[in-house]
């Protein structure tokens, strides 16, 4: 009896320590979860409570999103949502100004990419901006970002239409849109193999986390955008100011936006 008493005391003390350690982690996770939900809620509320009324400009840093937004703003409608003023504008899509849509410039920096998922609930269309002159060099990084967007459960479930905006088409080295589309398909096919292998070897916890991440396309078939529930189109475009004739090289992007805003896509 006398030998068990100190042991019991000892185990009680270490249990107490463990409780503190165990309590610390869930509390931290809870705080992180609450803060994340609060941030998302603020974003959504600031987006004026209107659901899926926006078109997102997403893409790698340097692809020209901010430039494109500035060019679109040239014909901009009045911006009333001041909270998103810095990175969103209302763009008029017809001459009478009856058809317009909010366009949001989503930061493309690697560390801010998770923000894209905060914006997908308000998206009715996604313009994926890519630097068509650098696609050969940046293909992996660009395709990975696109893969992350396409596997977002909301993007798939709501069949949000996607435009591959092959930007900087003014440069002689820019790839043609069809070629950009093919390059992305080939690279996504490779990424799909890697990611699927990673899913097979991950723990139950990780698996639960990525359960929402869907398998893209058809198993056993080379990846094609046509296999997705989303409509995926590609256009060449440029945000450079045209010097001579009124040759609006964002016209193709605006036409697509008008189709999306009018529910034609
Ligand atoms: N040649 C060319 N350069 C562009 C075009 N659009 C943007 N750029 C340049 O690309 C760089 C990145 O543009 P920015 O809008 O800041 O890209 P973001 O990081 O995606 O917002 C800048 O140096 C722009 O001048 C374009 O249509 N053609
Ligand atoms: Mg920018």
Automatic annotation (TrEMBL):
Gene3D superfamilies for the chain: P-loop containing nucleotide triphosphate hydrolases
Cellular location(s): Endoplasmic reticulum membrane
Membrane topology: Single-pass membrane protein
Keyword Transit peptide: no
SUPFAM superfamilies listed in its UniProt record: P-loop containing nucleoside triphosphate hydrolases (SSF52540)
Endoplasmic reticulum among keywords: yes
TM spans (from-to): 20-44
Signal peptide (residue range): none
CC per GO annotation: endoplasmic reticulum membrane
InterPro entries xrefs: P-loop_NTPase, Small_GTPase_ARF, SRP_receptor_beta_su
SMART domains the record matches: ARF
Molecular functions per Gene Ontology: GTP binding
Keywords from the UniProt entry: Endoplasmic reticulum, GTP-binding, Membrane, Nucleotide-binding, Receptor, Transmembrane, Transmembrane helix
Membership in a protein family: Belongs to the SRP receptor beta subunit family.
Record protein name field: Signal recognition particle receptor subunit beta
Taxonomic source organism: Thamnocephalis sphaerospora
């Amino acid at each position: 009896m006398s030998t068990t008493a100190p042991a019991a005391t000892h185990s009680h003390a270490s249990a107490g320590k463990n409780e503190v350690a165990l309590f610390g982690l869930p509390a931290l996770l809870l705080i992180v979860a609450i803060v994340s939900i609060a941030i998302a809620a603020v974003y959504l509320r600031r987006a004026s409570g209107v659901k899926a009324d926006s078109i997102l400009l997403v893409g790698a840093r340097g692809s020209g999103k901010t430039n494109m937004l500035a060019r679109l703003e040239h014909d901009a409608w009045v911006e009333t949502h001041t909270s998103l003023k810095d990175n969103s504008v209302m763009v008029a899509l017809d001459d009478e100004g009856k058809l317009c849509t909010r366009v949001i410039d989503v930061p493309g920096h690697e560390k801010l990419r998770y923000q894209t998922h905060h914006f997908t609930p308000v998206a009715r269309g996604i313009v994926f901006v890519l630097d068509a002159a650098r696609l050969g060099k940046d293909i992996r990084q660009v395709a990975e970002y696109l893969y992350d967007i396409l596997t977002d459960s909301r993007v798939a479930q709501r069949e949000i239409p996607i435009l591959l905006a092959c930007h900087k088409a003014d440069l002689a080295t820019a790839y043609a849109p069809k070629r950009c589309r093919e390059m992305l398909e080939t690279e996504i096919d490779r990424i799909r193999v890697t990611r699927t292998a990673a899913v097979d070897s991950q723990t139950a916890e990780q698996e639960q986390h990525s359960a929402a991440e869907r398998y893209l396309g058809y198993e056993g078939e080379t990846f094609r955008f046509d296999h997705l529930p989303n409509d995926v189109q590609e256009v060449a475009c440029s945000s450079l100011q045209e010097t001579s004739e009124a040759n609006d090289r964002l016209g193709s992007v605006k036409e697509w936006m008008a189709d999306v805003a009018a529910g034609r896509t």
